[in-house]
Amino acid sequence: MSNSLLVNCTMISPNRTSPRNRRIDTITPHCVVGQSSAEAIGRCFTSPGRKASCNYGIGVDGRIILVVDEKDRSWCSSNSANDHRAVTIECASDKTAPYAMNSKVYDKLIDLCADICRRNGKKRLLWLGSKEKTLAYTPKSDEMVLTAHRWFANKSCPGDWLYSRYGDLADRVNVLLNSNISNELQYAITPDRNPFMEPETVVKIGSRGESVKWVQWHLWRFGIMDREEIDGIFGNKTDAAVREAQKRLKLEQDGKVGPETRRAWKKLA
Asked: Rounded to an integer, what distance in angstroms lies between the CA atom of residue 155 and that of residue 51?
């Protein structure tokens, strides 16, 4: 059983059960309740007295730390049966409800979940919509399911922000796993609603990820780009399209999508 090659650093916790006693067929994301670095997440679990750990952590900048090998059970979800079958992922988040995560963390969570599925021979990630349905379901050999810490303890984890996006998370992971899955509904891209997270910083040429897709959705909505060009890569074509949109709105044509450009675009969307 291998670990992800997406890992940027490693800090193995003593808080684990080795080996796990179930094959992996579950992913359980968590919220850290703090905008922590990958290393800070790892340090949370170095003391044996903490009696807690996770398999992976995703820091506020999107870097990934390995805390417990996938072959071993982490102590993360307040439920031994869940953690013996699950890969658990702690994600940097706000300290207060709804415990929102930035686009770097969410994008990397999607990538990591897809990687976990691939290496464990899973072709689909399922979100069944409720604790009752999920725990009553036996995943097929090529399926992975999502579960939530809040199902097993009096906690809000993974927070309403992420929990409300479980369906979106599964859809995006499945697109990465198999381009034939949900092609018509990919990312739920419609002209009525932008499904991507609004950027928190300036987006410009060279940027990549969820924030660029937010920009490209608006450019598609304005008729400047095609839907098929929403790829999360801010290259020359996106730069030219941004400048054209800024020109139409009589904004500074610098190709950078900052707060002023975002405000203007949202008024028209």
From this structure: 17
In tens, the pLDDT along 176-226 reads 887 543 333 344 567 777 777 788 899 999 998 878 989 999 999 888 998
Cβ pair 182, 173 in contact under 8 A = no
* Of 25, 245, 4, residue with least CA distance to 139: 25
Nearest to 263 by CA among 208, 199, 207, 192: 199
Q: What is the pTM of this model?
A: 0.70
Residues (pLDDT < 50) of the chain are 180-187
- Decide if 56 contacts 1 (C-beta within 8 A): no
Kindly report whether the peptide bond that precedes residue 158 is cis, defined as omega within 30 degrees of 0: yes
Residues contacting residue 223 through CB under 8 Å, at least 6 positions apart:
none
pLDDT at residue number 186: 44
Mean pLDDT of all residues in the chain? Answer: 91
Q: Do the beta carbons of residue 207 and residue 230 sit within 8 Å?
A: no
CA angle centred on 144, ends 142 and 145, rounded to 5°: 145
Answer left, alpha or beta for residue 156, where phi above 0 means left and psi between -120 and 50 means alpha: alpha
